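Model it.
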Amino acid sequence: MRLTARRARSRPSGSRRTPDAFPSWQAVSVCASVHHHKDVGGNIILSTRHHARLRSRAAVFCASIAAVAGVQLAGASVAAADQCDNNLNGSAYRFLAIDSGNFGWDFTSQGDVYDGNDRDAYDDYGLVTVDGATYDSAGQTTCALEADGRQFDLGETDMSGLKVSRKVYAPATGTPFGRMVTFLRNPSAAPITVNLTFEGNLGSDSDTTILATSSGDNTLAEPNNDVWAVSADSTTAPSDPPLAHVWDSAFTTGVLDRADHIYGTSTGTTPWANGQDYVRALYDNVIVPAGATIAYMQIEAQRNSIADAQAAAPALAAQPLEVFADLNDTELNELQNWNGADIDGDGVANTADNCRSAANANQADLDKDGLGDACDSDIDGDGTSNGDEAIRGTDPLKPDTDGDGVTDKADACPTVAGKGANGCPRFDDATPPGLALSAKSKLKRKAALKGVKVTATTNEASTVLFELFASAKNAHIAKSYNLVLATKTAKGVNGKKSVTLKPKKSLVGSAKKFTLRVRVTATDAFGNRTVKTKTITVKG
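Modeled.
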């Protein structure tokens, strides 16, 4: 982290001071152990901005100490939740959230990131301009916390005939990132066209290096063809967090607009390049229909290594569901540069999707419970979760795996068919299963060699053995049925089951006319058996 003067929007650069020039700095050293940088003469090198931040941190720390001792300190109170001004604990930002990776997102009343909670990741990045004017909610009293304190809703401001507002967010779990959504509401009866930018200054200063882009190189083109980029202040050993900048979704469908230009200065018209710490994404000629609201969303991510940042950028641009957390359906449908109307990208709109958390274009719903199989924890609706079925060895696509008439949830023996009330075998059952056999009694030789179709029907769950016999004499068909031509076994048959028994031509030999015998054996869970046979005449 740099403690020397840095470039920042509308902020004075730091200057070298002696320790006694900052009484409040001495208070910081008393209340907390704070490391500071000195030059060779022993003077503290501290930017005005960092000095303000450290004073703020000291106030919070000292307030905690004082509370224990029963002492009240001035300046340690927290501003009311409905205030939009940058006065959180007397600091220069309005809302602070620590994401799931322990990275800080200190958002100002303008909706931009102040510096990343003292990590020098940013220098006021994420500002939004409309026709050149910068959004700012300062002075308003319409701001509010949402999503259990993870999201801050900044108030509406009049800009170019539009009502402009922003929401900023950082997740407590899952992938760490910061999110900024800008809403453009047109209260008029006619469409309004504006130029929109998402811009700001990075903490990497003149050392800014572009390390990767979505087009596969490390340069930005004009016009823009990238949806994300990765930057840091070094190619090998960054001192500030490497950053992933995601301007737009990488989805190829459902995205209505993308940044037309990614410029490298606040006013220039050349692509962002190495050494430029100011980045400006420009959306040309944004049309807001009469009476409508549209929205643009950008994602930022701080990481501890370049490799992590390079992995984060494409992953976030692929619009995992978590980037849409705590946005309602109306807000999702308003997004222009992300596919918010179909967040899983399966071609089915959120409002009609029976599983919006996973792509399922076929909308399969086996148990007809209105929840798609792709995200249904109990696909077959038998009351046993898919996970539990995997543990028990039952089929998550069959409510009654063993086919004994008792559902898997109620079956004490779910993989063994039984006639007991609990689904287990009854050992006093001596009744063989009912069995019916169906097959053609006459076949042409050519058809017989292609396979004999046999159908067995049982009245209880049984293992059914299908066999096709002929008699053998000098490798030719005879009449004693001592040659097995084909067999198949089917388990858990409770009802009708058809198979095709295909004899080997080499076993049939050259006989033109002969007879075959089909034998079907049904065995229930108690070992009771029923056997049926049928003779088939084969002619050439």
